[in-house]
Amino acid sequence: MRSSIACARCRRSKIKCVNAGIDTTCRACESSGRECVYPTPAIGVGGAAAKRDLAALADGDDRNGDMDGPKRQRPRKSVAVSSSAAKDAAKGTLDVLDSSILTVKVWEAVFDLFQSHFATILPFLHPATFMGHIRQLSGPQSSSSSTAPTNQDNSRENAQSPPAAKSDLSPLIPLGVLALTARFHPQLVAYHSPASPGSPSNPALASEFYATALRSRLAGVDGASLAITDLTRVQALLMLALHEWGMCRGKSAWLYVGMAIRLSQAMGLPYELENDVFSRDGPRSPAFRAETDLFGISRRGMEPKEQTSDDVIAQETKRRTFWACFILDRCLSSGKYRPRMIRVKELGIQLPSDNAFAFGERVRTSRLSEPVVRRPQSFGAQGVQIPSIRQSLGGFGDDKLPNNITPDPKSWSPISRRKDSSEDEIDRWEIGAEEAVLSRVIRIIRIWGSIAKWSCAGGRRYATASSISIR
């Protein structure tokens, strides 16, 4: 054992340490009034090195000898270790979800909590798909099953997709749902943080338990899994970001949202390139085609007339996943040191639709960069008036036409009336008064983001003509 005769401060400053021995105050620390601390001496380092050298000599591996001689290769154990660690990590995740507390009844209550508290900000979970996976994994013992629900990696958004094997299901979405909702479920709180006579239960510990498992699963064994472009990973990162925000860890939440946005951009979610009918002003230059091929983004998928309801739901799920990225980006980005990552003028995606998500209808909506279309009435293919949602519910004064005015469907712009399905291969238009509530929330969040940026920049004291523009 080699003793250390210089204190930590003198070692760090690379100056001579004048002392009377270990555990005594040196002259430099005494003059500056600092605490004199000595580092702990290393034990056994030299012995281990000597043993390695002796073993090398015994095996005939003389490093100073002939370089042309045969070299003995050491067996590689990293692959086996990584494989074993991956299996242990997967087993740990399954143990988290295989708890006997996670029955179908608990999952139904948990999903209701998610729909009540988080579905507006994270609107991409399809109820039929999510609960279908839970019942599929639970099997006949739906009331007392100890198997936790998981979702598919790439086709979980398809409500009517064929059942997948358990090995094909990803635990990311269930872990994300539990990380957000476990604190609100009394049974899960009591299970993960039981109350004692000296201290009450802590609901946050229940959510932290599943959030920790989600972080581990997202990172993988060596962290390489973070770069996998998968829709469930984007959704899981958004769930984890919202959990971090709720735990008052805004910086971590902002970082997770940034990771989700980058993955979504790598997947082409801000652009609807798979359908040229919806991508009205998309670029078609050779450079653009080369870029889409480089990133593995499909430039064109099936025609709208070939889309089934499941295909429409899958497309709407991707669309809603990106809009969740936009909502959290505007909520968590503010000021100079947390800039926004999404610019509205660069988006080539339409606003979400409830009918497309719930029923698989081929719906056309406006884009966020387009002005809001105010129209009092919808018209069918033959010019038949179709009342809007607000008019059906009583409407507002601005939605009603004067009695002495007869609307002319031909005088309206193409985006302000419903088209024949044989012309544009769509089922309905949802713009103006028929726009979904979620679309209006997105418009409000956009305004809120501009106000937050203006306020963090100094507000009215430093306001300029362009500092409060809606972008």
TrEMBL record:
Residues 6-38 form the Zn(2)-C6 fungal-type domain. Residues 59-84, 136-168, 397-419 are annotated as: Disordered. It comes from the Eukaryota. GO terms for biological process: DNA-templated transcription; positive regulation of metabolic process. Keywords: DNA-binding, Metal-binding, Nucleus, Transcription, Transcription regulation. Its main location: nucleus. Residues 147-161 have a biased composition (Polar residues). This is Unnamed protein product. It comes from Aspergillus oryzae (Yellow koji mold).
